[in-house]
Design goal:
This protein is of the alpha+beta class and 172 residues long. Helices cover 30% and strands 29% of the residues.
Amino acid sequence: MKSVGFLLIEKQLIFIENRTYISWILFAQKVHLTIFNEEMGRLKVKAITLNEMLFVLAIIGALLLIAYPSFMPLITKAKAQEAKIQLSYIATLQTQYRYINSTYSNELSTIDFEEPKTVLSQGKANYRYEIVEASAGSFKARAEAVVDFDNDGTLNVWEIDENGKPKEIVKD
């Protein structure tokens, strides 16, 4: 038969095989892990202090504050992808509409484009979309940012025409 030990943590007994148990002892700021085993005796493993852990977290926070500004242009580019993709989709829908009706549409609902909810109305989209002008031979659609990505007071604006290539009109 195997011998069974116990583990006492927060006034609970937990049994462990081979008569080994672990106790956690919390002193003022030092945590000690003590492993008891009848064959090996008593081993004490010291852990790090709370002050040491806070110091490491402060260093990581400082590094993040230094790195954050260099990531802002990448974040803006990533969010601008939404406008490019949606405007390209609008251009495709406009082309299909023109093949059927021999003219471009003045309304997004006519070409079956459902505008996504913006972050201002508890949605996920960062841009508002509209068709600026449309005629038999051309159209222009616009995507305006509803959020200032880099907090400089300028909102990003993209446009697309019948050629199907999105152009950034106002940089953020």
